[in-house]
Structures are given as C-alpha cells and as structure tokens.
Amino acid sequence: MPNRHTVGDEQDKWDWRRLGQSSFFGELRKALQRHKQRMKRIEVVAAVITDGDTYLATQRKGGDWDGYWEFPGGKIEAGETPQEALVREIHEELDVLITVGDKLCTVEYDYPTFHLTMHCYLCTLSEGAPKLSEHKAIRKLKASELSSLTWLPADVEVVAHLQVHEETLQ
C-alpha cells in the first residue's frame, strides 16, 4: 500500500511517534494558540450588585445557556467607558439605576466559539427595584450561598473572587 503522505506534510506534523512527546505537545500548544487568535473576541462588563451582605444574581432566559445564573451586564458599545456601559446595561435589563464602585476582577474565558473578557465591578442600587424583563429570575444571596446556583462558566470565577473578597473583609 502506498504511503498516503510524505514526510513534512501537515498530517506528518501530528505523528507523535516521529516527533516525540514534548515536540508533539509543543505543536499542539502552537495550534491551540493560533485557534485562540482567530476566535471571535467579546468584551463585556458585569455588575456585582451588593445590598448589605447579599449579591444579586440573574437567571438567563432562552438561548444555549437557558437557566444558568449570571451577574447582569453586557457589551461595551463604541465610545463608552466600562462604567457607562454597566449603568446603561443594568438600566436596560433590570430597570434600575446603579452606582458603580471598585473593579472586582477581570475574567478571561474561552467559550467554544468565542473568547470572553469580562470586567466585573462592585455596584449598589441607587434607584428602583429590579424588574424582570430579560431574565427568568432574580435572587439575592450571601457569598456563602452563591455556589448553590448553576453559574455560567465565566461567572464561576467571579463567584470565587467574591468568596475570597468576603473572607478578606471579615
């Protein structure tokens, strides 16, 4: 049976027996980096809304992540600061006004079809009571209760930051 490829072609590059384990994983790492560079990149903001010792969580409605919990927020539009985007998004989603405080963290997460950069800010309600329009449910939880919900993958890291943040305040 004739050889289906010649040494040096694309398929041969992935022959770990020829390359050796460390070279194979080096090539794999380079391929993953190239894929990541080609992925769509989305930059968003999230409001970690506090009320005393509780945090506001919203449950997604519809789409691939229906039923998962998240900290509300959205995309930053051209010309907006992250803080301006956050005030706009929270007003659109929950019909409330917020005061944006300190930045809690920035999460970098690779979903299957895009790379997400999420800037998370500690916020407080300044006017109004949250109303459901884009979400299924709203809950207020203590930091110790946050892990009881099924969070979007990127938001899991925010929950971890909050729990560490709570420990440092005590």
Automatic annotation (TrEMBL):
GO molecular function: 8-oxo-7,8-dihydrodeoxyguanosine triphosphate pyrophosphatase activity; 8-oxo-7,8-dihydroguanosine triphosphate pyrophosphatase activity; 8-oxo-dGDP phosphatase activity; 8-oxo-GDP phosphatase activity; metal ion binding
Alphabetic keyword roster: DNA damage, DNA repair, DNA replication, Hydrolase, Magnesium, Metal-binding, Mutator protein
Database matches in InterPro entries: MutT-like, Nudix_hydrolase, NUDIX_hydrolase-like_dom_sf, NUDIX_hydrolase_CS, NUDIX_hydrolase_dom
Needed cofactors: Mg(2+)
Entry EC number(s): 3.6.1.55
Keyword match DNA damage: yes
Xref: Pfam families: NUDIX
Source organism, top-level taxon: Bacteria
Residue ranges annotated for the Nudix hydrolase domain, each copy included: 40-166
One GO-annotated biological process of the protein: DNA repair
Keyword Hydrolase on entry: yes
Catalysis performed (reactions): 8-oxo-GTP + H2O = 8-oxo-GMP + diphosphate + H(+); 8-oxo-dGTP + H2O = 8-oxo-dGMP + diphosphate + H(+)
PANTHER family linked to this entry: 8-OXO-DGTP DIPHOSPHATASE, NUDIX HYDROLASE FAMILY PROTEIN
Family: Belongs to the Nudix hydrolase family.
Record protein name field: 8-oxo-dGTP diphosphatase
Organism (species): Porphyromonas cangingivalis
